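can u do me a favor
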């Protein structure tokens, strides 16, 4: 490259380096450095292209700055699913929400008005009380203005998008689970294993399985369908379902939640671990925060945040695999229950607690005392509403 072209390159780099976007000095600076070279045709074309591009960029920047000064813009997108069959994560690290749904890495889970979780495209974001928007960390939601405030800084708030549940799994009869597209087959241990085929044939050796429609040949270790013979498959052990929080009335909340009693006497789920249940029996606050019922906030020293609304807990799914057989072996209760006699019929009913204390018509958790006068379960100064027993099921229905 000759010295003249080196000078051109040097001046061009110098112009770009000192480019001032806000005042659009780039146009004047470029013109100053390149004016005396414009006699050559290719440089004229280059200058025209540079000036047009610089002008357009400056005009766009000025226009954007006038329209939206100090406004943050974020593009939202749907949460992703995890492919459990191929063990391929779509995201490097997904943010798992308390209800088991997922948001992309770097997002924050926020409750929506529907009670489901949405994804705010910011890490450690502030979830606004309208359950539709969110703000950057350290900002305060101004619901009336639709903005996020931090001192004199005001930025537009963001709209959450719905989180998506993790891909469905196959639930086995003992409560364990297998990846989607698998079949549950009982192992020799009595637990369930996963056969990597849909609607598979479980072999009698309790170790292997065959495709649907095939017959297990345990002598040859193959699967047969007419003249078609294929090798059989080995089952893998199923995984326990993700743990949940069991409330005192036998219902359950997602892992990481806290059971709080509702005004109805039933239990609701606060989407925080070890949360503070507010006295209005509707809302809750994070651990170490205090409920300010009059203001509808949670306070911790000078920190004030919006309180959260509890969601209804869900009944524990009943399973007839592991059941409690009542005396006489003529009836049974779901696993985790206790058999209590019902008066005056003397028939058995099911109390939704293990090792429960049977009251005259009701029941209480283990360690509590029946208070028939007030209809409560007492333990020291702690009193709970007692529970009504549920009818048992005949033993013949135990599958």
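np, heres the sequence
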């Amino acid at each position: 490259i000759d010295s003249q072209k080196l000078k051109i390159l040097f001046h061009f780099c110098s112009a770009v380096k000192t480019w001032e976007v806000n005042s659009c000095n780039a146009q004047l600076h470029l013109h100053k450095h390149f004016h005396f070279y414009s006699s050559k045709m290719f440089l004229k074309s280059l200058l025209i292209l540079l000036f047009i591009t610089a002008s357009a960029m400056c005009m766009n920047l000025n226009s954007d700055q006038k329209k939206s000064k100090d406004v943050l813009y974020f593009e939202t997108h749907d949460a992703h699913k995890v492919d459990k069959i191929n063990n391929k994560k779509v995201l490097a690290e997904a943010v798992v929400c308390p209800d088991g749904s997922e948001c992309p890495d770097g997002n924050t889970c926020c409750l929506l008005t529907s009670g489901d979780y949405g994804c705010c495209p910011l890490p450690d974001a502030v979830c606004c009380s309208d359950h539709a928007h969110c703000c950057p960390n350290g900002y305060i939601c101004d619901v009336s203005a639709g903005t996020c405030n931090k001192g004199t800084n005001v930025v537009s708030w963001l709209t959450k998008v719905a989180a998506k549940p993790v891909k469905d799994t196959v639930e086995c009869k003992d409560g364990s689970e297998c990846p989607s597209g698998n079949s549950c087959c009982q192992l020799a241990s009595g637990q369930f294993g996963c056969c990597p085929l849909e609607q598979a044939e479980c072999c009698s050796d309790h170790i292997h399985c065959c495709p649907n429609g095939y017959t297990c040949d345990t002598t040859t270790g193959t699967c047969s369908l007419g003249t078609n013979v294929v090798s059989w498959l080995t089952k893998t052990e199923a995984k326990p379902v993700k743990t949940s929080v069991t409330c005192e009335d036998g219902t359950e909340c997602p892992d990481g939640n806290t059971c709080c009693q509702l005004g109805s006497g039933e239990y609701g789920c606060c989407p925080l671990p070890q949360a503070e249940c507010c006295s209005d029996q509707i809302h809750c606050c994070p651990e170490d925060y205090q409920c300010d019922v009059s203001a509808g906030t949670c306070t911790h020293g000078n920190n004030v945040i919006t309180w959260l609304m509890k969601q209804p807990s869900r009944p524990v799914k009943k399973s007839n695999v592991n059941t409690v057989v009542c005396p006489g072996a003529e009836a049974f209760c779901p696993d985790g229950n206790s058999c209590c006699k019902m008066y005056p019929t003397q028939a058995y009913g099911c109390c939704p607690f293990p090792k429960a204390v049977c009251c005259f018509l009701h029941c209480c958790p283990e360690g509590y005392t029946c208070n028939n006068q007030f209809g409560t379960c007492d333990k020291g100064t702690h009193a709970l509403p007692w529970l009504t027993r549920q009818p048992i099921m005949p033993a013949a229905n135990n599958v």
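The helical segments are 3-17, 25-34, 41-67. hope that helps!!
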